[in-house]
Amino acid sequence: MEVTEGGVTVEVEGARDGASEGRADEVFYNPEMELNRDVTVAVLRAYAERESRAETYLDAMAASGVRAARAAAEGYDATAADVDDDAVALAGRNLAPYGGEALQRDANALLHEGFFDVVDVDPYGSPMPFADAAVAGTRNLLCVTATDTAPLCGAHFDSGVRRYDTVPRNTEYHPEMGLRVLIGALVRRAASRDKAAVPICSHVSRHYARTYLELEANATDATATLEELGFVHHCEDCLERDHEFGRLPDVPEDCPHCGSNRVLTAGPIWLGPVADAGFTERVADEVTDDMGEAARARSMLQTVAAELDTPTHYDQHRLCKQWTRPAVGMDEFVAALREAGFAASHAHYSGTAFKSDATVAEMREATAELG
Ligand SMILES: C[S@@+](CC[C@H](N)C(=O)[O-])C[C@H]1O[C@@H](n2cnc3c(N)ncnc32)[C@H](O)[C@@H]1O
Ligand SMILES: [Zn+2]
């Protein structure tokens, strides 16, 4: 059957839901990833404005080639690579009207052989088996999807430790934990090749984390990116969390806020900004109405751009449950924090997520009169 995304029409072999991911009996096309692809196209547009030399685009795991076809339609010199012969044949047919080529290659081999300006790594599950090659073969912008949210956020602890070479912790801000674990791991992989990787846009949507990393081959800058890594200490009882930059954590024995001994330390994870606000605003402006997920993409990107970009977000419902108070509207809650003199913003991770520089105790007091 044919599907049209953002003005690009491709042939796909039956749309399947994310639950059947990984069964390789037919070429994979996931309609739930349309938001991911719409945002990708908007990023490619904004990035072309920022870096006019970025011309070549590789979807290193292309499946039907829909993403590469959309990049080709934007004027990028696009390549769709996949190990699967059916995928390559289909991607070849799908790319033909827009230009670009399909290659039957292993992503790791291809990316170790030469450079592409923009590289997309969009595998089943974790991108880490491809991270080293992706860093080696990307000149400017590395776009990465991770769908293994349980290892990333610490819910599957051992696989998270193995894949991401860190200690992930299962907290109520799990989407952000996952994103910061992912970025931290990629930044360290880039630094091992003397490359600085800086996230210029990121988001977490239902089943995946997505980040866009600008790469710079510069050892000094690479060292500087490592300064943005560190640890989060999270109290499971009072929900306060503190973060500290650095290579070795100074793990508190008890929570400095409530004295509980149920303190979890996560890290090293990325503690720096997950997005460049100005760039992300431009990405939001590049979302066009011909995109199937235009409304969601625009609103999510605007939230990311306006988000207080510090670790880590809170969930109003979780806090209100803790305080045995009814939850109120998010606008009202955020406004009350601001009126009390704190920095506060919505956070894109969920409808009840927000960021603030207030402590949990300060938030409780600042919002006591609501509801
Ligand atoms: C999630 S799908 C890609 C979806 C596609 N990027 C899109 O936007 O629709 C993952 C693809 O990776 C391919 N793949 C798995 N291992 C690979 C490898 N080592 N090199 C290249 N492709 C690989 C699979 O055949 C599958 O088609
Ligand atoms: Zn505590």
Question: How would you concisely characterize the structure shown here?
Answer:
Helix content is 36%, strand content 23%. The protein has 371 residues and is of the alpha/beta class. It has two domains: 2-306, Rossmann fold, CATH 3.40.50; 314-366, N2,N2-dimethylguanosine tRNA methyltransferase, C-terminal domain (Phenylalanyl-tRNA Synthetase, Chain B, domain 1, 2-Layer Sandwich).
Measured between the Cα atoms of the first and last residue, the distance is 51 Å
The ordered string of helix (H) and strand (E) elements is: EEHEHEHEHEHEHHHEEHEEEHHEHHEEH
**CATH class wording of the largest domain:** Alpha Beta
- CATH topology name of the largest domain: Rossmann fold
- Which CATH architecture of the largest domain would you pick? 3-Layer(aba) Sandwich
Summed over residues and divided by their number, the pLDDT gives a mean of 95
Hetero groups in this structure are: S-adenosylmethionine, zinc ion
**Helicity, as a percent range:** 25-40%
Class by SSE composition: alpha/beta
The total beta strand count reads 15
Poorly predicted ranges: 15-22
Record the strand order, biggest sheet.
5-4-3-6-7-9-8
Beta-strand content bin:
15-25%
Main beta sheet: 7 strands, mixed
**Continuous helix count:** 14
Shape verdict: globular
The fourth-level CATH homologous superfamily of the largest domain is Vaccinia Virus protein VP39
Folded structure, characterized:
- With 371 residues, the chain is of the alpha/beta class.
- It has two domains: 2-306, Rossmann fold (3-Layer(aba) Sandwich); 314-366, Phenylalanyl-tRNA Synthetase, Chain B, domain 1, CATH 3.30.56.
- 36% of the residues lie in helices and 23% in strands.
- The chain has 14 helices and 15 strands.
- The chain has helices at 34-50, 66-73, 85-95, 107-113, 131-137, 149-152, 157-164, 174-191, 219-226, 277-285, 294-306, 316-322, 330-339, 360-366; strands at residues 2-5, 8-11, 56-59, 77-82, 101-104, 116-121, 138-146, 195-205, 208-217, 229-235, 241-245, 263-270, 314-315, 344-346, 353-356.
- The strands form four sheets. The chain has a seven-stranded mixed β-sheet with strand order 5-4-3-6-7-9-8, sandwiched between helices. It has a three-stranded antiparallel β-sheet with strand order 11-10-12. A three-stranded antiparallel β-sheet has the order 13-15-14.
- A hairpin with a 2-residue loop joins strand 8 (195-205) and strand 9.
- Helix 1 packs across helix 11.
- The chain is globular.
- It starts with a strand and ends in a 5-residue tail after the last helix.
- The model is unreliable at 15-22 (pLDDT under 50).
- It binds S-adenosylmethionine (SAM) and zinc ion.
